[in-house]
């Protein structure tokens, strides 16, 4: 349970709040589920992810040495608790209420559904005046993480962009953005949550930094990333020997 009498400083907000505890998967991950035992008068009860809850239930609904394996509760402030709760309790529909890892067949169905949801997002973006397929030129500023796309008539639109990963046409490999050394610390931290998601859900392709792949694998992984991280759309930016797959968090006319 939270400890109102114990105060902890939040490094992001610079404020001091009540202390509480979360399993490491909640603090490090995204869409890994959220479980707690609400207590009257305690808005921040100890919480844990789907995988930790599965071990808890397997132990007969008790915290034992076996069920606590991998729990690694971490001290957080109340503000971060609420942020991590919101980030993890929203899961893709195929995973809602599911505690165990996906089987190979279930993983394929989940990825397939994520691809369809990305296609719907791409269509919605085009209807809103942001036809990604019609863009003739692109420019990505890694410093401020902004993608600018130029149409044939010279008009432009922009997006806050995150590098989901890249596909090399030379080595036929996929490299996750969180493993790309050119990424900033902030970008890596945001994207690295996909690896925790993959570990909890049994999606090995999200866990390994680099692996033999096809261009379509790049689209599939980008679709999963867009689904989990809440991107509005995605764009494949071609370079000499790489396709950069970018998550677009918003889309606005260029100023």
Features:
2 domains, 255 residues, alpha+beta, single chain, 3-stranded antiparallel sheet, 26% strand
Task: Characterize this entry briefly.
The chain is of the alpha+beta class. The protein is built from six helices and 13 strands. Strands 6, 7, 8, 9, 10, 11, 12 and 13 form an eight-stranded antiparallel sheet that branches.
What does this structure look like?
- It is built from six helices and 13 strands.
- The chain has 255 residues and is an alpha+beta fold.
- It has two domains: 3-90, no CATH class; 104-253, no CATH class.
- Strands 6, 7, 8, 9, 10, 11, 12 and 13 form an eight-stranded antiparallel beta sheet that branches.
- Helix 4 (104-127) crosses helix 6 (215-229).
- The termini are far apart.
Please, how many helices? 6
Stretches with pLDDT under 50, minimum 5 residues: none
Largest β sheet strand count, sense and barrel closure: 8 strands, antiparallel
Which overall shape is indicated by the principal axes computed on the Cα atoms? globular
* Structural class designation: alpha+beta
What is the overall pLDDT average? 90
Percentage of β-strand residues = 25-35%
Beta strand count: 13
The percent range for helix content is: 25-40%
Pattern of helices and strands: EEHEEHEHHEEEEHEHEEE
Q: How many separate structural domains? A: 2
User: What is the CA-based Rg, rounded?
Assistant: 20 Å
- Terminal CA distance reads 49 Å
């Amino acid at each position: 349970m939270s400890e109102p009498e114990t105060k902890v400083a939040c490094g992001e907000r610079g404020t001091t709040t009540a202390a509480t505890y979360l399993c490491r998967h909640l603090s490090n991950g995204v869409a890994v589920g959220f479980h707690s035992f609400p207590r009257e008068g305690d808005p921040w009860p100890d919480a844990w992810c789907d995988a930790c809850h599965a071990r808890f239930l397997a132990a007969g609904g008790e915290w034992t040495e076996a069920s606590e394996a991998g729990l690694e509760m971490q001290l957080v402030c109340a503000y971060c608790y609420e942020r991590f709760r919101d980030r993890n309790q929203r899961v893709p529909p195929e995973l809602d209420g599911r505690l165990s890892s996906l089987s190979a067949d279930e993983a394929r169905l989940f990825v397939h559904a994520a691809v369809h949801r990305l296609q719907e997002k791409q269509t919605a973006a085009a209807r809103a005046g942001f036809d990604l397929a019609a863009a003739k030129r692109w420019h990505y500023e890694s410093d401020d993480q902004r993608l600018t796309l130029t149409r044939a008539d010279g008009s432009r639109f922009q997006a806050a962009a995150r590098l989901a990963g890249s596909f090399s046409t030379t080595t036929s490999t996929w490299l996750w953005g969180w493993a790309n050394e050119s990424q900033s610390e902030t970008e890596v931290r945001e994207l690295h949550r996909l690896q925790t998601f993959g570990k909890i859900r049994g999606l090995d392709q999200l866990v390994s930094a680099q692996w033999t792949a096809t261009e379509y694998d790049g689209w599939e992984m980008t679709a999963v990333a867009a689904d989990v991280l809440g991107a509005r759309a995605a764009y494949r930016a071609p370079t000499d020997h790489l396709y950069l797959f970018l998550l677009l968090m918003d889309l606005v006319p260029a100023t």
